Amino acid sequence: MLPSGQFLGNHHGKHKAKEIFAFVSKAFPKGIHIRQIDSVTAEGDRGEFEGEGELRGKPYEKLVAISLDVCGEKICGYREYCGLVGLPPAGE
């Protein structure tokens, strides 16, 4: 699920995953660099990290939580949640 833009909403299937990852590759031509890993579950299917890079030539810095669904030996589901690094939680 993506929060806005041309990919707003939930997506299913390999073809959609390819479209989304192609879009992200163009938006971040130099890649996203993991600055710090904050947590990973014992099962290895969920984690949080801080990432940075350039989004269309402008500085990008986010806290990212990723959840993977694993079916057998393949990833069959992917969810990503982003927030701004350094901001206090809502209500503080």
List keywords for this structure.
92 residues; alpha+beta; single chain
What's the layout of helices and strands?
Blueprint: H1 14-27, E1 32-40, E2 46-55, E3 58-71, E4 74-84
Antiparallel strand pairs: 1-2, 2-3, 3-4
Describe the protein.
- The protein has one helix at about 15-25, and strands at about 30-40, 45-55, 60-70, 75-85.
- It is globular.
- Helices cover about 15% and strands about 50% of the residues.
- It has a 4-stranded antiparallel beta sheet, with no helix packed on it.
- The longest helix has 14 residues, at about 15-25.
- By secondary structure, the protein is α+β, with helices and mostly antiparallel strands.
- The model has no long low-confidence stretch (mean pLDDT about 80).
- It is built from 1 helix and 4 strands.
Summarize the structure.
This protein has 1 helix and 4 strands. By secondary structure, it is an alpha+beta fold. The chain has a 4-stranded antiparallel sheet with strand order 1-2-3-4, with no helix packed on it.
